[in-house]
Amino acid sequence: MLAPVRERAALADLEREIAVPGFGLDRLQLVETPFVPEVRLHLAEDAIVWWARMEAAAGHPLPPPYWASAWAGGQALARHLLDHPELAAGRRVLDLAAGSGLVAIAAALAGADQVVANDIDPYAVAAVTVNARANRVVVAATADDLLDSTVTADLLVAGDILYDAALAERVLPFLQRAAARGAEVLVGDPDRGHLPLGRLKVVASYPVPTTEPSVDSPVRRVQVLRPA
After folding, report:
1. pTM, entire model
2. Is residue 54 part of a domain?
């Protein structure tokens, strides 16, 4: 592990390398993920406050910093992969809507042959790059919109991606096409209200610590699902 001063200097160098203005990694905390302590992530203590500071620094509106939080669905998926490394070991893995890169990093730690983390937010791509380096794993990050493309991965993982009805309408056909082509598909969802009845079946269920501002309980029950 790098000493704090050396680690922050390395982050500053990486920020310049990534060239994402206002990213401000030095103001995030590198911490163990609550439900997946094997993985350390750069997270905001309060993502809402962090968002406001980012927008003030950038001087214009920015997308929500989903990459600065460890969402419950991603934590459950990452835990599932680390507890069942045979799911990822030796395989090509795609982490869709990767956010911080938590699930992608867990797949790499589980022995995946190749890991790609995809998120259309360029800040998330930067976060994945930094977080993968902090965990000493190799993860390729891309900001392309893949939902109309063809999946070539062996394992497709997606945490907390069914949070919006319109997005779910695009994501579900993509997941089903991937499964039809032979990819194993796993979704982590804390029941945000957009799970389609009969189209996904439960593989596992986990009580996951959560710090989401809109959730009263400190623990959420999260399901890991696959297409039926």
Report:
1. 0.88
2. no
